[in-house]
Amino acid sequence: MALSTIPFSGLGADASKQGVNFRNFIINGDMSIAQRGTSATGKTTLGYYTIDRFRQVISNMGTWTFSQSTDVPSGQGFAYSQKWDCTTADASPASAAQTLVQYRFEGQMLQSMKKGTSNAESVTLSFWVKTNKTGTYIIELFDRDNNRTISKSYTVNSSSTWEKKTITIEGDTTGTLDNDNDASLDLHFWVGSGSQYNSGTLQTTWGTRSDADRAVGQVNLADNTANEWYITGVQLEVGTSASDFEFLPYDVNLRRCMRYYQTYQSGGMICWSGTTISGANYFQDVRHVVPMRTSATIGNLTVENRNGFNTSNPSIDYGNTQGFRATLQSNANTNEAYFRFKYTADAEL
After folding, report:
1. Could you tell me the residue range of the domain that residue 308 belongs to?
2. Sheet hosting strand 228-238, strand order edge to edge
């Protein structure tokens, strides 16, 4: 029995009224999807914690708790934000230390930017931010295909107050983005950096990456355990002005996130039900809820309960973008055999 798919209603009438045209390159910019959980504590290294598609990059710069927060700008339609909470401070970071939020794009998703051509388009980034740590912050686009970057600064003016920021980034006529499903471009929201990343001159026009010029002027959010930082409403779109945030129906947003990560964790799934012969191997083909970006890494594959099968967990024989096959060996002759398992499938960039 293969995993059944979640019903998909399409965009629906509500989306039509909103004028949805997928102008936002960012998936889950409203922070509404958090398949991995709503809180993660004691984090000191990089990883996808809580909010889907937004990766936290931490290198030798404090200890953090991340959460899907309900603290949001009033009257803007958002239900969630992502919160950074410093729990172990680092007021004097090492040279190579860094902390930032990273969003990675597939090259094939960005072809309308026309990067690397004479018709390269400007893009505009807009988002809401709130923090008690006022001062200068840096956002950066990093072209991974051509090792090119551009950084822009923004200022948090008022402590613990939601502020909307809009930043236009000019088009780059050098370096086309690969038209494939690999990571081509990163968006970085810096929150702290060591001298390796801030000792030069901020690179405010496109050019070859120079680490010293990437985060010049960036405040250190890690310098005090009282520091918090919230973000929501992240939108990146072609053009020189910001439009209203493009809200998508929850089911559409979820399925877009599942291209990169999905999980079957709720109660386990019945993977086999029927007759078994002791010592024989039994195969279960599992189809992903939606096709994934690439052949996924299957993790946390655990058996919840079983009858007529060995106590070892299933082995994975093969997988692709559509699903995978698991194998479990029977330890009994029975007409009432079954097993259940849970798993995660990860195809993040």
Report:
1. 260-346
2. 39-43, 63-69, 81-88, 228-238, 123-131, 163-169
